[in-house]
Structure formats: structure tokens, C-alpha cells
Amino acid sequence: MIDANEAPLPEPPPEDLVQARRAPAKPREPGLDRTPPHSIEAEKGVLGCLLLDPREGLLHCQENLRNPRQLDLPKGESGAFGTVRHTGTTFFYELKHQVIFECMLEMHESHKAIDMITLKQELTDNRQLEAVGGVAYLSQLMDGVPSAANLEYYFDIVWDKYLLRKTVRTCTEMVRQAYEHEGEVDRLLDEVESKIQKINEERAGEASASTSEVLKKVLRNLEERHGKEGLSGLETHYQKLDEMTDGLHPAEMVVIAARPSMGKTSLAMNIVEHVVLQSKVPVGVFSLEMTAEALVQRMVCGLAKMDFRDVGAGKFAERDFPRLHTAVGKLHKAPLYIDDTPGLSILQLRAKARRMHGQHKVGLIVIDYLQLLHSTSRRAMDNRQQEVAEISSGIKSLAKELNIPIIVLCQLNREMEREKNRKPRLSDLRESGAIEQDADLVGLLYRPFTEDEGEPGDESEGLPVNLYIAKQRNGPVGDVPLVFLKHYTRFETASPMDEHDVPQD
Question: Which CATH superfamily is domain 231-449+459-496 in?
């Protein structure tokens, strides 16, 4: 309703005062007009130290570069030096320094003596001596450092500048893609995080390793393991499971699957409880079904050996508070981090997991549960199996990227309910066979069948439940007998039956 007493609208401004529509500005790529980060003096210092002590110096460089020939670098470049193989030397900014270092590396790998005379001859044979500045420049490099003692310091400066240049190049490329991107934003952000993570790994010395380096690492691990008792991976609290798997190992995707209300969340949280309280290893939990409060309350009730339903309803006596306080005290300082954001995409989960791993150094991640995740990929929009396959592949690659075990909870389909009294099979994994392919270990929870099975007895006494290891890449398969204390949401190892426990006629 319009009020007649309102003030009249202002007159439109004259045409010459009307702001003309501004044409969209063309995005500028930042940093292209600036000199990339570098330190010529530090580069000279590295080369001078290598000329003074080539053997030890080059060994130090190769150890820090891990495998310098597998860095993410340009393939080749033509110029005054001819065609130069930029294999592992472009952490130097100055091209002639790259050429000199590459020449010294080749001489070292060929077991040739390296000094001023031999290096001069090698560069001459390669027709590169004059291009790098001749003998005068080589002498200047050697005379520029008093000794080789500061090689590590010079090398760190050069390496840091290389990482800064790589960061600038990566970020510039990401800016360009952001302006031109027309697809899913989450996918672009995941790509950005992944590239930055690779630079961070390179900074930490995690560049690609050759077979010889991997063999050395394997042998070192075997020597460390020799004569030592205990598991090579994380303990789960369940003795037979630990015996079959030798613990939970880095980069493994562990799937625990069951029908609803079989206790898969309880089993996973029991493992989490043991890892954070006994092994003192930080754990991250992504709960897409339950709130963080509900999960923690279950853990408190389980530790206090109190019925979680009675506690939730307030049906407990005042004398029970000390037990609750004791349980809370145990969990108070536990390195447990729970993210209960609902409806996560696989890209969002990967980003959160990277951040959690970077901040808290988590050694185990639990995802509850896989089918509640979704993919933003257009290919998966109309195909649920394709979507689940992308989610499963994303989780496996995340486990390898972070180098930690990831426990993923899954639902089984209804097929096993149509055939009573049978073990679940890998084919019962709901919605996709890709889960079976990606997983390193698959455990299927089920109630063991007995011929005289009738109505279950007192649940407080425990329900027999088996964890059937249906797949394991590096170990046996078979049943792990457990007892599910439903009121306490706890799984315990089933005690083996002794012949004396069987009643005699």
C-alpha cells in the first residue's frame, strides 16, 4: 500500500552523470612481472663447496634431494647451452649453475674424479665451458667460499627458494584455472590442496624414491623389527584380529561392513578408544550419522560399564557418578577429534582429513559411514554405483596420501537376509563392487548360526557376533569370534570354550 504523504521520488540524474557500465576487467596473473625468488650468492656457495669437497658434498645433496631426477621439473630447454637435460637441477635458478651441477652429478655417478681440471675438461667435451663463464668463473666459485663446512646452510637457502618458485608457479596456475573454471568448485579446491600438499611433501623430503631407496627402507624396517615383540601396526584390542592382521598398517583402507544395528559403529569406536587411550595415537572420526555428543556419550557409558539407554534417560543413581567421572577423566585428555558435519562430499572429507592430519598428526581415521558420503562429479550424478566407486577410490587415495590406516564403515545389502543362516559375502557390500577392490582388508559382522537358535537371551550377558575377515591382501581370512555387550555398546573377545565347560551326561 502506497502512502500518499510519502516524499516524492528523486528526479533521475542527468545522462552525463549516469555512470557508464564498466567493461569487465581482464584478470591479471599476479607475480609474472616480478623476479622469482632466488639467491645467486647461495647458489655460488653450494657449487663452491662442491668443488672443495665434491664427494661428501654431492652425497649430501643427493640425500636431501632423495631422488633428484624425479622431481617435478621441466623436461628440457634449448638456448646458449645447447639442449640441457633439466633432470634434477632446476632447484638452481641460474641456468649456468644448473649446467655445472648437472655435469658434476654425471661425473659422480660415473665414478669420475671431480676437481677443477676434470670438471673443466668435462664441460669442454660437452661444449659448455664458455657458456658457463669459462675457467675464470669456476675459479671464482671455488675462491668464493673459505671451506665446505657451510654447504648445508647454502643448500637450505637454495632449496627454500626453489620451493617458493614452485609455489608461485603452482598458485599462478591455480589463479588462472579459478578465472576459467566452469565445473565443480569443490573439485578445483581439492586439486589446489593436492598440489600444495605435494610441495609440502617435497619440503619434507618425500619426493619419489627409487627402488634401491625403497629396498634400503624395507631392510631397515626389517632390522628394526627383528627380535622385537608386538605388532607392526596399530593394536585394535582384539587379540585374534591383531594376530590375523598384525595390526592396522599405514596406507590401508579397512572396511567394516554389516547390516543396520549390528554394532559396526560400536566396534569401530572400541578400536578408537583403545588406540587413543592405550597406544596414545591421535585419531580422527568423521561421523556422518551420529552427533559427536552421542558418540562420546556412548564411549563414556562403555568405559563406565553403564547402560547407555538408562544414562540417556537419566535412570541412574547418584552412586554411579564416580564411575561416570572416572570415564570422563580418561577421555578428557585423549587425542580424539570428531567431525560430525552431515552430508559431506568426498572432496570435502579429503580436505578436512588433510587439515586434521596436518594440525593434530592423526594416526588413524574412521569414517561412519561410506554410503552417507556423496560425490559432486557430474559423471556420478545419475549413477549411484559410479558415485560409490569414486568415493571408495577417493578414500583409498587419501589413505596413501596421508600414509595412515583409514577404517570405513559400510552397509551390507538385503541379499543376505533372504538366505537365512549364511555367512555374508564380499558381494553383499552395498551399491558397488569397487569397495571390495579398493579395500586392503574387509571385515563383515554377522550373528553366527546355531541349530537350536531361538529367541536371544539376556542381552546384558552378551550376544555372539563374528567378524568375518573376507579379504586381506597381506594375511589370512577367517572368523574372529566376539561378544557384543549391547547395553554397553562394547565388543569383547569371545573366550575360547574349554572341554571342562561342556556339561557331561
Answer: P-loop containing nucleotide triphosphate hydrolases (3.40.50.300)
